[in-house]
Design brief:
The complex is a heterodimer of chains A (163) and B (166). With 163 residues, chain A is an alpha+beta fold. Helices cover 22% and strands 31% of the residues of chain A. In chain A, strands 1, 2, 3, 4, 7, 8, 9 and 10 form an 8-stranded antiparallel sheet that branches. Chain A has a two-stranded antiparallel ribbon with strand order 5-6. Chain B is elongated and about 85 Å long. The chains are: A alpha+beta (163), B alpha+beta (166). At the A-B interface, α1 of A face α1 and β8 of B. Chain B: InterPro entries: LexA/Signal_pep-like_sf (IPR036286), Mito_IMP1_subunit (IPR052064), Pept_S26A_signal_pept_1 (IPR000223), Pept_S26A_signal_pept_1_CS (IPR019758), Peptidase_S26 (IPR019533).
Chain lengths: 163, 166
């Protein structure tokens, strides 16, 4: 009859709903506490990352340390998620050239407590802590672990390659 | 082979136990998602928000939706992850949004020596209501907007102070 059709439809909808909720919960826990995929693009991390785009895996388990490439929420724009390398931890003394296009004048800054200093591997075209200052730990979302795509560069993301 | 028979006897119990555990797990998931993304209760204490919040500790309800939609405004009491210690959360009031110009006195006990600052893009200026006993943006500077994790809604404990926070 009509009522039993709706009953069956309702039961099916409930079952599918529960399955969707379970899958979503599992994904939520995994991406928020373990690891998540990300698409990184832009010139600031050449040669570690391709400017035209990489699909990477980032993990949230370890505390970032010197030399890690991290994803963080930009202090300048909460909707942006830059990817840069941690060059200095709290307490470290970091020296950088203020305006490489103009002259060689450099400044030394001590990274304050609770913050890290990030810089892109391609200094010439990177907007990083030299522009927006040290980044609080609370903004760091994850550490880049592995590159998944392009396939010819499948592998771990490691220390900067010295030229 | 007797232990195999014992295992068989326990199979029914094990299945029931698994079902109960999965019900508890689902309930915990629901609580977790609500607590983290919708509304949660927090115990706040300290002198920095007197007289709005008590010194010895209040339980407040905070919602975690407004900051995702940019609906945080001037005068809101917000829960912010401390820029100096990422394991701590602080509760302060927003006194300046990006682009605002603020004057504050560097040391309120001394009185003079007023400093003027413009809140940079993507940041907010937070201050405790109790200027004399609060470590806030006057000490650690403007705070990136992304560090805001919740907005205080109302106080639920102690019961005689139950009500919305202003």
């Amino acid at each position: 009859m009509a009522s039993s059709f709706w009953n069956i439809a309702y039961q099916q909808a409930m079952k599918s709903g529960v399955l969707v909720a379970k899958v979503y919960s599992f994904l939520h826990v995994t991406t928020n506490y373990l690891a998540f995929p990300a698409y990184a693009f832009g010139p600031s991390m050449i040669p570690t990352l391709h400017p035209s785009g990489n699909v990477v895996l980032a993990e949230r388990i370890s505390k970032p340390s010197r030399g890690d490439v991290v994803v963080f929420q930009s202090p300048e724009d909460p909707n942006k998620l830059p990817t840069k390398r941690v060059v200095g931890l709290e307490g470290d003394s970091v020296s950088f050239v203020v305006d490489p296009g103009k002259n060689d004048e450099s400044r030394t800054i001590v990274v304050p407590k609770g913050h890290v200093w990030v810089e892109g591997d391609y200094i010439q075209n990177s907007r990083d802590s030299r522009s927006f200052g040290p980044v609080p730990y609370g903004l760091i979302q994850g550490r880049l672990l592995w590159r998944v795509w392009p396939f010819q560069d499948f592998g771990p993301i490691g220390p900067p390659t010295t030229t | 082979m007797r232990w195999l028979r014992y295992l068989n006897q326990w199979r029914g119990t094990a299945k029931e136990a698994l079902e109960q555990v999965s019900i508890v797990a689902k309930f915990l998931c629901l609580i977790h998602v609500t607590d983290r993304y919708i509304i949660s209760s927090t115990h706040v204490q300290g002198p920095s928000m007197l007289p709005t919040l008590n010194l010895t500790g209040d339980v407040i309800l905070a919602e975690h939706l407004s900051h995702r939609f940019g609906k945080i405004g001037l005068g809101d009491i917000v829960l912010v992850r401390s820029p100096t210690d990422p394991t701590r959360m602080v509760t302060k009031r927003i006194l300046g949004l990006e682009g605002h110009r603020l004057s504050f006195s560097a040391d309120p006990l001394v009185g003079d020596g007023s400093v003027s600052v413009v809140v940079p893009k993507g940041h907010v200026w937070i201050q405790g209501d109790n200027l004399y006993a609060s470590t806030d943006s006057r000490n650690f500077g403007p705070v990136p907007y992304s560090l805001i994790e919740g907005k205080a809604l109302l106080r639920v404990w102690p019961p005689r102070f139950f009500g919305s926070l202003r």
